[in-house]
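Researcher: Please predict.
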Amino acid sequence: MCEDAFMRTTLDIPDTLFRQAKARAALEGIPLKEVVAESLRRLLGESGLPVTQPRRTSFPLIPAGRARPAMTRVSVKEEIERLENERDLHHAGSPRH
């Protein structure tokens, strides 16, 4: 997030564009205002005006669509328990030196 102070304003944005921006914010786990600010930084940067570089590093995301996520907190916990049990069984069966 940029160190700049935010200015509150009202904008009329086409519905489709708003939904796309809102989805992008959700996928990246950031507030909508950051998506809008980043878009403006890029637009203004392309015009040759000085722009403050964002501090946030983005990384590739794979959208899950409407399907449930492949991993949840519960499934991660269950997988950790399964791996720990498997490790314990492996160590219990191996000879000690």
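Model: Residues 73-93 form the longest helix (21 residues).
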